[in-house]
Amino acid sequence: MGDSAGGAVPSEPQIPDHDEARSIVARLLDALPPGSHLAVADGTDVVTGEAFRTAIGMWNEASETPYHLRTPELIAGYFEGLEILEPGVVPVSRWRVEPGPFGEPDDVDEFCAVGRKA
């Protein structure tokens, strides 16, 4: 695979069992050489709470592919054994934000992180 590679895991919310999702991510990471990166973004309910849980419930009632919210702590679990890059597990609107003319972005219920395999 060369010197390094990257992996993005966009569909882990479709796997209801978090241990199974972590196992899949771990197997993918095992195949990557040192210096590779993992990027994960996943939905939470820590910002909007019940409003987002209600929206996800409506989605799940109408969809053949249910969505499973994860906490930021569960999202961090995907990075076990990796160096999590700054700023860590944060709302996607807060990951390496640069100053802009409109001020600080609002937090959102999608958290993300990037980790590096040593």
Describe the model.
The protein is built from three helices and five strands; from the N terminus they run E-H-E-H-H-E-E-E. The mean pLDDT is 89. Strands 1, 2, 3, 4 and 5 form a five-stranded mixed sheet that branches. The radius of gyration is 15 Å and the shape is flat. Helix content is 27%, strand content 19%. It starts with 5 loop residues before the first strand and ends with a strand. It has helices spanning 18-30, 50-62, 72-77, and strands at residues 6-9, 37-43, 83-84, 90-91, 110-116. It is α+β, with helices and mostly antiparallel strands and 118 residues long.
Features:
single chain, about 120 residues, alpha+beta, five-stranded mixed sheet, 3 helices, 5 strands
Q: How do the helices and strands line up, and which of them pair or pack?
A:
Blueprint: E1 6-9, H1 18-30, E2 37-43, H2 50-62, H3 72-77, E3 83-84, E4 90-91, E5 110-116
Parallel strand pairs: 1-2
Antiparallel strand pairs: 2-5, 3-5, 4-5
Question: What is shown here, in short?
Answer:
By secondary structure, the chain is α+β, with helices and mostly antiparallel strands. Helices cover 27% and strands 19% of the residues. Helix 1 (18-30) links the parallel strand 1 and strand 2.
Derived structural class: alpha+beta
| Portion in strands | 15-25%
Mean pLDDT: 89
Q: Write down the secondary-structure element order.
A: EHEHHEEE
The end-to-end span amounts to 16 Å
Shape: flat
Number of strands: 5
